[in-house]
C-alpha cells in the first residue's frame, strides 16, 4: 500500500523525534533533548530556554577549574572567574559581587536602594553567608574566594567584626601584598601555600586604611552595570572606575546584568550576547580579557552559556587557545593541543 506524502512526513517526524530522545541515564550530551537532569552527562542539566531552542535540552551546569586543568603557577590576574551578582550563594561559583548594609543592628546582605536596607530588600545577616564561605574554604584548601562588596556599612569596624566572627580572617589576603600600578598579582600557587585565599574588596575608600579591606578602585577597572552596560558594541566604564584601558589597575571586571533581573530572559543574555560583549570589552580594555565576568542566573543559557564564555577567555589568557580545554595541561606559555 502506498503512503501519502502527508503520512510519510508524519512518519519521518516521528522517527526523528524518537531518535533524538533515545539518550538517558547520563548519556545525553550538550544540547541533546532530555526529560530530566538524570538524562544528561555529568556537568550538564536539563533545561528549557525558549529563546534558544524548543523543549528541554542538556546545557552546561558547572565551571571548569583552570588551576586543575592547566596549572596554578601564574599570577591571579592571568585567570578569568565567573562571578555572580547579588546571588548570596556560593553553589558552583566562588566569586561574589554582593551589597552589604547596616540593618537591625547587624551587617546584612541586601539588594536595596538609597543606601538603606529595608524589610522587603533584605536577604539575610551576612554572617550566615560568610560562614558558608568559611566552610567552603575549609573543605577546599586549594580554592580561592573573591568578594566584591558594594558597601553601605557605616558602623565602625562592622565588616571586620563580621568577617572575624565568621572565622575568615585566617584566610585573609592582606592589602600590603596587593600590587600597585598595574603590576602582577602573586602566583595562585603561592596564595594557596600561604593560605591567603580570601580576597575582599570594598567600595569605600577609607576602609583600606581603617580596616585593611582593599578599596576596589585601587586595583580594578569595571564597565557600566545594568542596562547601560548591555548595549551591543559599547563597553564604557562605570562612573567610579577609571577608564577600562587604564593599565595601572591589573584586574578587569565586566558586568553583564540588566537593571531588573528576569530569570526567563537570562538564558538568552548569558549566551551569544554575553560572549559578544566580552569581546567588545576586550577591545575597550586595551586588549585585556576580563578577570571577573559578572552575571545573573549563571546556570541559565542556550547551551554553554557563562561557563563556555569563561572557558573561552581562560583559553585565550592561559594558552592563546579559544577554549581552556584546548590548553596543554601544565603549560605556562601558549600551547594548544592538537
TrEMBL record:
Does the entry feature the keyword Signal, yes or no?
A: yes
**Keywords in UniProt for this one?**
Signal
For this chain, one GO molecular function annotation is: phosphoric diester hydrolase activity
Tell me the leader sequence span: 1-23
Q: Does the keyword rRNA-binding apply?
A: no
Q: Which InterPro entries match?
A: PI-PLC_domain
Q: What is this protein called?
A: PLC-like phosphodiesterases superfamily protein
